[in-house]
Amino acid sequence: MKIFITRLIPEAGIKILKNAGIEFDQWSERRDVPQDDLIKICQRYEGLISVGQDNIDKKFLNACKHLKVIAQMAVGYDNIDIPEATKLKIPIGNTPGVLSSATADTAFLLMLAVSRKAFFMHQKIINNEWGFYEPTENLGIELHNKTLGIFGLGKIGFEMAKRCAKAFGMKIIYHNRSNNILAEKELNAKRVSFDELLLQSDVLSVHTALTAETKGVFNIDAFSKMKRNAIFINTARGAIHNETDLIKVLDEKMIWGAGLDVTNPEPMRADNKLLQMPNVAVLPHIGSATEETRNAMATLAAENIDAASKGKRLLHAVNPEVFG
Ligand code: DGY
């Protein structure tokens, strides 16, 4: 099998492809492959490792229906039209599980950073504004025994809940379509309605996939129901919150603060108002960006390709129904 890879990926994945005798080429430019170019390029390949947010829509899939596999090097696959791929019998792989800890660490880091205004304080030193010690200034809020609300308690949400329960004795509530039995047993987590999640959470952390249902769900209506001292964290996808509404509620002190690893659009522009706000911490989508996790993601993506090249089921298929 000969495949194309839309970014330079860690050596761990490359090794697997080489050992499996899979030929490959990689896009090495520091910009996304334009979709029309990717369509042309893919005519020469039988498989694709998609990294980042390549637009794998109806147009792409129908122009590349000869592809035997598309392996997404990410857990999220909102950039791929899954029903269309399934209709065309193209297996789509992803990399769940291996990035849960690293992403939860990022959510936890943002929560702490926001609660103590850490990014803003750091910026004050850089601006030579450390200044005079005033006992009433630079105050944050504490997290001990507060309530953590998880929107979408899957593998990543569970890791975040575990960290918060163990480090700060936080009470865990969550909103899901179904119960997370493990979280209920191990963390005493309680499933609540979306409204209850908004009303009760001191920290509300988003860990759901981006779908038609979750797009823009954190808007002015939702934010208005949150506590005035609540912290909003999003490490999932930027389009799940409405950025204009978030700026408004922060400006009007309707919530305490926000920590974002994902924005809409990405990259965020340097003049974005959120970057000037004291109670906001923004990171450039680095949830899974550790050496260990990126190696594991590249490994899984390459293993999915290897499986497809041997006519086997993918290790992690988003649309297993294509295997009949
Ligand atoms: C994912 O896996 O979906 C991440 O957002 C990529 O880092």
Q: How far apart, in Å, are the first and last alpha carbons? A: 22 Å
What would you report as the Rg, rounded to the nearest angstrom?
Answer: 21 Å
Largest beta-sheet details: 7 strands, parallel
Which blocks of ≥5 consecutive residues have pLDDT under 50?
none
Would you write up a description of this structure?
There is one protein chain. The protein is α/β, with parallel strands linked by helices and 324 residues long. The protein has two domains: 2-98 and 290-323, NAD(P)-binding Rossmann-like Domain (Rossmann fold, 3-Layer(aba) Sandwich), CATH 3.40.50; 100-282, Rossmann fold (3-Layer(aba) Sandwich). 36% of the residues lie in helices and 14% in strands. The chain has twelve helices and twelve strands. It is globular. 42% of the residues are buried. It binds (2R)-2,3-dihydroxypropanoic acid. The site of (2R)-2,3-dihydroxypropanoic acid (DGY) has 6 residues, from loops.
Summary?
By secondary structure, the chain is an alpha/beta fold.
